[in-house]
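Researcher: Going back to the complex we discussed earlier. I've cleaned up the inputs and rechecked each line, so this should be the final set. Can you rerun the prediction on the complete assembly and write out the structure?
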Amino acid sequence: MPGRQLIMDFEVTPTSHTLEAYRARGGYATLEKALKSMQPADVTKEITASGLLGHGGAAFPVGRKWSVMKPGDGQPHYLCCNADEGEPGTFKDRWILEHAPHLLVESMLIASYALGVRNAFVYIRGEFDLPWRRIQGAVDEAYAAGLLGAKTFGTDFVLDIVVYRGAGSYVCGEASGLITSIEGRKPYPRNRPPRLTVKGLYQRPTVINNVETLANVTGIIRMGAEEFRKVGTAKSPGTQLVSISGHIAKPGVYEVEYGYPWVKFLDEDCGGMLNGATLKCVIPGGISTKVLTRAEIETLTLSHESVNPAGSGLGSGGMIAIAEGTCMVRLLQVLLRFYHHESCGQCTPCREGMGWMHRIIDRIVDGKGVPEDIERLYAISHANDGTTICGMGDAAGYATVGILNKYRDEFEHFITSKRSRFDGRLECLA
Amino acid sequence: MPRLTIDGREIEAPAGQTVMEAAKAAGIFIPYFCWHPELSVPGNCRICVVGVEDKGGEWVDIACNMPVAEGMVVYTNSDKVRERRKATLQFITLNHPVDCGICDKAGECTLQDYHYEYNGERSVSVDSKVHATKHYDLSARIVLDNERCIQCTRCVRFTREVSMSFGLGMQNRADHSLVRAAEDGSFEADAYSDNVIDICPVGALLSRSFLHKSRVWYLKPAASVCPGCARGCAVNLWHRRPEWRLRAADMRAQNEGIQRVTPLENPAVNGPWICNKGRDLAKVFGRARAEVSMLKGRPADLHGALAQARSLLASARKPVAVVSSWGSNEELAAFKAALGSRFTTFVKADHEPQAGEVLEDAILIRADKNPNTAGARALFGDAAPAIPKDADLVLVWGEGFDFRLIPPEAKIVYLNAWLQPENGHADVFIPISIQTERDGHYTNFAGVTSAFSKCFAKPVGVADAEAVFPALAAMAGGGQ
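Model: Rerun complete. Updated structure for the full complex:
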């Protein structure tokens, strides 16, 4: 097991997701403690002290986001749980929604108490079926038990949670796109300023946190910030759920304590590469983070302070292991096809740039590439960097530049010899 | 108020303004496609980037969504900004067909102007363009060319924020996005839909009535006032420049017709918008004209008709006049000065609302379909026309009067611009000029007076009402 476990700390059984089982594990005791012995400001203070970082990809300090909210300033506040897990390679939130939905509900209750929220939303992607049934079931159970929609534990605190199913779009996972979708419109991301904690859902202050981020709240309040900081490293406290896929022996969701050695995680916990293949490179946290080669991760640990200086990031924890023999040109083609398909088309650089990059990479794979195409891909990535409304334009650029920087020779080979350096058959899959 | 520096000029701007607004107010130009002063800020075209000095460096962001801040130092033309604009224009023209040669917008196209000003280079792309519908009927009035569309969403926001029809939206994603009309026909029913043609920064939205009619540089605008209702919106009447007159045999419609109508911004009356009825003024002014004076239906010369009218007036014991609410303030004043004391005068509505027309709304359209009712009533009172039984001479000015209201034995003097059956029944008929053939003023329902100017010469044989009234009075012996 890669370090201590905070979220995946129970045995999964066919009934472990129910309210009964959750209560038997001590569930909702933390909520009662918070409601009866803590002021809302104390909860926020505790979260700030814990140093909890956002798990949606940007690793923004949760305490700083929450501190902007001013409960009791006379206007409604909203909390949205971002369960639109759309980053390719990422499926960690699904585990929480399927197996620990009550942990999320309890955490949302505590967070809403801290933020002065009366109505909270869970925005879940439409493709999720079992996770949706589980979280909707948990919310229904909580209503029936009087935890939601009524005065919780006899206090004056009341919360309603709406589980909202999206219709499936990558940009719905972008915070402002998500709230626009809840409002019933096309999920075009919004310009900042104003920040969403100032003007968010229905033009009111809104906190949007990832499922895993919120799921950590209950644990922090239960054990206290000081105890929580003992897990992980000084700069990355706690754990991260890593969903690993690709050419790996044991793909799946692992809870990794920050600071755990990367190679050890791959070789021991995940059982090494599939059929004894050699690791070529790894995408650390969703396809929008830059790839790292085997040599680069040799000395790294799974923590923000270790991965960020290497020019990448842990992102959303969607790790993809790539075996030696994989054609990086075709890999980039898959990524760019995705970005082209998912660009919302609102702002110019992303709308036009994604399609342009996709057409260029398609042409290279068709054997019609020209030497200037590589520079053109760099230029489009550069023109998308920081010029778009949301982060998607940048993300596509990072992914492209990351692969081009490290595997430029494969692209040059593909363009000059009009075929891949690899024959497309992977030994490990034979 | 925050003080900031834009391109080395220190300016002061109210807090809450954006850099775009502050620069515009100070007369500093920042290019934009999607931004519009009357619409919300989508920030999607990314052409309005400016640089802001920061710790010895410079960061670049869009000006339309950047709040002004104390001590801010902004550059609208730094190297970084120019590079960004160039890259953005490369993106915008990537899938744009650049078919300016057959595009009605050429000559007044923002994209054309910006391309020459800020880019001027060939496309970097060697890949084929994304094709889309080239000719899509957005409504009976508007044709959409999706390939030219740069998806700035101005038109979409117009229907949501100004005309409130919610008639347009964006379909699909990425470079397959298309502007499309709602399926419930709300765009077809939008009485302000044609404004999207004007606010389209490129040639994507085209007026069907102006489609391939003329290159815009052959036309010139004449400032005018829409006579369609009591709002009196300021409009530009575009007509062919005299130096570009077509010389073929029957080109009168092209040379002396209104080619298109666009709004002329007037914050006191209509802002930058007009309704669709105003776009169709060519139909109103293009009706068949009466060009010959008549005595009981027999053609006569203008002088003879005037003399006959004078003699009728001289012998009348109880003359009654019904004046036109389409007359200009000058004409109405001329009538009042010359003949006002001789006649019992009423104001009539020349035009009544037509079936299917929007009667009145909260945006611009008024129920009174005449431009100068307020101006006429200020001079002649607001009593409804009621011809006394003992009237022996009735002077009717303008169309839309029910002649059955006139006592059978009374003599009729009729002044009208259009070819209509009533003309021949009057004892004296005098053809008069129309709005596009003279200068003048209208006073709208709110008391705002707007000027209109002359586009064309009046036909031979037609008189200006402003000259007819003093002539009648002088011939009738001073009109006292």
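Model: Worth noting: Confidence is low (pLDDT under 50) at residues 476-480 of chain B.
Researcher: Good, that matches what I expected from the previous run.
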